[in-house]
Amino acid sequence: MASVMLRILLLLVTLPLSTKAQTNGNLTLGSLLTADDRNSSWLSPSGEFAIGFRKMGQGAHLLAIWFEKVEDKTIVWSANGNNLAPEGSKIQLTANGRLVLADPNGGELWSPSPTVAGIAYASMLDTGNFVLVGQNYVNLWETFSQPTDTMLPTQQLDQGTKVNARYSEMNYSTGRFHFKLGDDGNLAFYATRDPWVASDTYWVSNTKDSGFRLIFNQSGQVYLTTRNGTLLKLITSDTVPTSEFYQRTILEYDGVFRQYVYPKLANSSSGRAMGWSMVSSPVPPNICKSISQTMGSGACGFNNYCVLGDDQRPRCLCPPGYTLLDSTNEMSGCRQDFVPQSCDGSRPETNQFALHEMLHTNWPMYDYERTAAQTEDRCREVCLADCFCAVVIFSGRTCWKKKLPLSNGRMDPSEIGKALIKVRINNSTSKSMGNGNKNSTLIIIGSVLLSSSVFVNLLLLLITYLIYRSFRSRDSKLSRPVQINQATGMQTFTYQELQEATNQFKEELGKGAFGTVYKGVLRSEYTNFVAVKLIATRTGESEKEFEREVIAIGQTNHKNLVQLLGYCNEGQHRLLVYELMSNGTLADFLFGASRPSWYRRIEIACDVARGLSYLHDDCTRHIIHCDIKPQNILLDGSLTAKISDFGLAKLLMANQTRTTTGVKGTRGYLAPEWFRNMPISTKVDVYSFGILLVELICCRKNYKPESEIEAQILLVDWAYDCYHNGSILKLVESDDEASSDIKRVGRFVMTALWCIQEDPSLRPTMKKITQMLEGAVEVPVPPVSSSFISSV
Q1: Which range is the signal sequence, renumbered to this chain (predicted)?
Q2: Which residues are catalytic?
């Protein structure tokens, strides 16, 4: 007996030393979890559910509940999707009886709403419900009554409860779709977060004055009941035993409510198929046809069209001549890939456009003109002759003309008409790329003057021979093709091909430190304009730049990076062939005579941020650009911004986060660590982007020595002063569009101030910055950088 008691005592003494973050049972006051790489969590008694932190990217964590025994740890509830927690944040059941998610500095990021106090303990239940319990054992708060996008068996939703879809599959911030059991008894699905027009409702239960509660029972059915508990309407009808399957229903980011099951023996040797399977019919069954908004884009983004796939899932596609705004999100909408038709009557462009036919396709509503054309040919004529016409629908001998942006797009057999999409036949443009002068590079030939003196003749001949040998040796080395083993699969060109393509390098587009860019045309069925960069200076550094650029950009594929089509590596010739960016550099666009619109500058800022985020996190080998500035951001025909000029780029190995190198880049955009002999990381690009962002906000260069007001000479210092003094409006006071969007201006300024922190570790990642700019996460108050202290 004494031996048993001793073992129990030893167990009690050593228990705190071996306790892990993953604990089962009730959580007492003082319990806490920390957001770190260990994915700490609190488990339900059976271990089937867990609540804790899930890593959402570098240094960002989501407080969530998930299926612990399902292979992909499927999340069913989350607290802070709109405000991810930084590394080192804590969720704690405090000594005074509150549940608080706090950042490393103690700032509160989230707590249950409405405010809950007097908690005695908390518990993660086997149902997937996390509850906060008071002294009298009454539930003070539970996640089942505060759902995000998912319902679980035994969960019940009362009138007034809202369920929000997430923004995308991996982005847990609030999306545009939600459903709500209203006080009138109707369960309704909405296409916007805050509906205020009737067309935002795309599915309704038609249970007005009767519906009281939405229930997900243990048999796998979701249904509405009346106040006295009588079954009123089935939402999903399949019955699935919870003893054999995990179950969930979810309003997904595409706006469709679906039910899934996962066999509990999926990971055993039973041979059952692994993964979630959809059961019951989705609600609504065809969202492509269900949404027709009078204000808004419809089921997909603007200029998209929606198609229901064989798997009953909607696909959002772009019509001919259009591409996605965001290649990672097909619901983001589409943009034109060509220069729109001119409305200048003095130079009609009717013959420059053609109409592509799409059967069973329509963008209903938003017609601006109807014409009784009688024939399709006549319908085509009236659209081609109208510079506002982007699409014309021919149906029932009638033309329905539409202009951009297109909304409610759908392709479905029930659509009896056909859509005719206007696209430019030859997307040529005379706009220049770059800001170099038009003078050809002069070739300086040195000559050796030989003395006629008899006494020094032999000596001079010997010296001349040695110099000749030296030059021949150097030329031989430079004539060897650069070894580009990593750029496999890219098209190579001969020097003669590129001579012909550029008409003997006739039309110069711009000039840089290592070469000149010329306009060219490649032989193809359609005219394909390109930009050909001729590396002019034959030096070791120019050879390295050529190699770096081919290797770096040759491994990338993103809509916000200039596409390298191929290169010439023949003998002494080094040339790079890029897609032609017809609207030149951001420097010309931003600092020119006319100021670009605020909303165009917003798009450009987000474009550059997405491009850098891709380089830093999503490439096979992470890339530091090292020279982000307006001159290295190019604009295509649709004014989409693309990062160019990778000649100074540094490639990191998969396990490498920083590197050492000499000072590179352009003064005014260089991070402080360049001048301090410190290892550089992707944070140097973040700093440069911060300077660029302030320039985009204010539409002026960072350094303006001619400014009449001394405080405004350095733009970033002035921006900080305005932010610190609460006078951000001064930065954009002459810009009516930006002034009317001052909340976003403030968010952009705060983001820029985070980017240009002197300490690289304080600067956010480009992925986080992209979320800040898009409004997906809140922007915390930036700290005071030591470089600004003197101005405070």
Answers
A1: 1-21
A2: 627
